[in-house]
Amino acid sequence: MKYQKIRGTADFLPEVTNKWQYVEAKIEDMLKKYYFQEIRLPIFEQFELFARGVGETSDIVSKEMYDFHDKGDRHLALRPEGTAGVVRAYVENKIFGPEHHKPVKYYYNGPMFRFERPQSGRMRQFHQIGVEVYGTTNPAIDVETMHLAMEIFKSFGIKDLSLVINSLGNTESRIAYREALIAYLEPHFDELSEDSQQRLHKNPLRVLDSKDRKDKEIVKDAPSVLEYLDEASTKHFEEVKEMLDYLEVPYEIDTNMVRGLDYYNDTIFEVITNDPDFGANTTICAGGRYDGLVEQVGGPETPGFGFAIGLERLVMLLEAANFEFPNLTELDAFIVTIGDEVNTEALKIVTELRKHGLIVEREFVGRKPGSQFKTADKLNAKVVFTLGGMELENRNINMKLLETGNQTKIQLDDIYSDNFKEIYEAEIKKLMSGE
Ligand code: ATP
Ligand code: MG
């Protein structure tokens, strides 16, 4: 029997996790500046949470869910996105209560699951870092959060990014727009793709989002959602634009942009990369406002705003730009051992060195000394210690700085002393200068 990973999933080996750890840490640093705190939630939830939360007519729920019945016959699903779970936790843990600072700002980082056709940048298990803000309709939150997304990408030196925004308006505006859109699309019914025909009455806004070429042609001349915003939504959108201008954050407006999830209102946005090396027009971050979702999931009326960054696509983008990821596991020292009789002493030495904070590896598998030196080189060790029968007898060890090739002997007593770190650093200085 030959086992294989499931289609659309990936194994992350250390050279990859090294990049991911770096990217995640950098993003999390930025999130903390904006006072976001981490929340960790179950990877599976009740199917109904996503069906009601994300929306029955969304592709995610109608086609892409990994849902199943467990042995207790509960209908469950692997989470396809993060927001529904965070909203569920917000309600269940009564975070709306007065003892919690408002707005509540949470972020999450983890795997999401969608049954999609796998291709580059589109996986069945993929990863998102997302943020959610609860408790304010202040347009400054829309702007601050979109700005945060852009700042994250800027911190990696990614250029060629567009912030694309739109407003879907509040419920009243959307009902008016929905009618107008249906009236516009109905005469084109026969020309629409099968998917769009089905959506026309159930969820006509989704037709705007169709990837079908002919659908795109038709929706080009559709009425704009912005013309149907009522006074409150118009004001909100105007303020968002003014504040973006004030922060000098460039943006484009795409009135045909809707989102893949049904819960949004007012401001929605995507961050799109135009990098030709990467395949232009790829969305790496998307989000918006969802003022009705908390209530829909059983909580009190609570406005929300959030986004999610696709980490696979971000890492791919950095790779395409030849981004230099720092190596997060630089080896400080490697211990070359010569002869079985030094095995136990080597064990003690690595233990000591690690106590002083050094990253240390040693020989275990019985290679010849020459091959051990090559290993140390390959692992990029700064220092190689060599311990053989002679050294053991004399209670010292050879220390070589690979950068200069200079070497010295240090006493095992020094290695085992409390001020080893100072001795070690002094020796490194000498070996650097070749004294
Ligand atoms: P798309 O239009 O590309 O299908 P989406 O609208 O379904 O994206 P969201 O649900 O808004 O995407 O998720 C936000 C981000 O998560 C996307 O911009 C993308 O970077 C990433 N993402 C979404 N689906 C996948 C997937 N199947 N594989 C990898 N990344 C994904
Ligand atoms: Mg999708």
- Give the bound compounds: adenosine-5'-triphosphate, magnesium ion
CATH architecture of the largest domain: 2-Layer Sandwich
In spatial order, strands of the major sheet run 1-5-6-11-10-9-7-8
Mean pLDDT: 94
Helix percent reads 25-40%
Oligomer: single chain
Which CATH C-level class of the largest domain is it?
Alpha Beta
Largest beta sheet, briefly? 8 strands, mixed
Kindly report the CATH topology of the largest domain: BirA Bifunctional Protein, domain 2
User: What is the radius of gyration?
Assistant: 29 Å
Shape: elongated
- Proportion of β residues? 15-25%
CA-to-CA gap between the ends?
61 Å
Number of domains: 2
> How many strand units?
16
Q: What structural category do the secondary elements indicate?
A: alpha+beta
Plain-language structure description:
The protein has 435 residues and is of the alpha+beta class. It folds into two domains: 14-170 and 230-320, BirA Bifunctional Protein, domain 2; 333-433, 3-Layer(aba) Sandwich (Rossmann fold). The protein is 38% helix and 20% strand. It contains 16 helices and 16 strands. The strands form three sheets. An eight-stranded mixed sheet has the order 1-5-6-11-10-9-7-8. Strands 13-12-14-15-16 form a five-stranded mixed sheet, sandwiched between helices. A hairpin with an 8-residue loop joins β9 and β10 (282-289). The longest helix has 20 residues, at 14-33. Adenosine-5'-triphosphate binds next to β6, β10, β11 and α11.
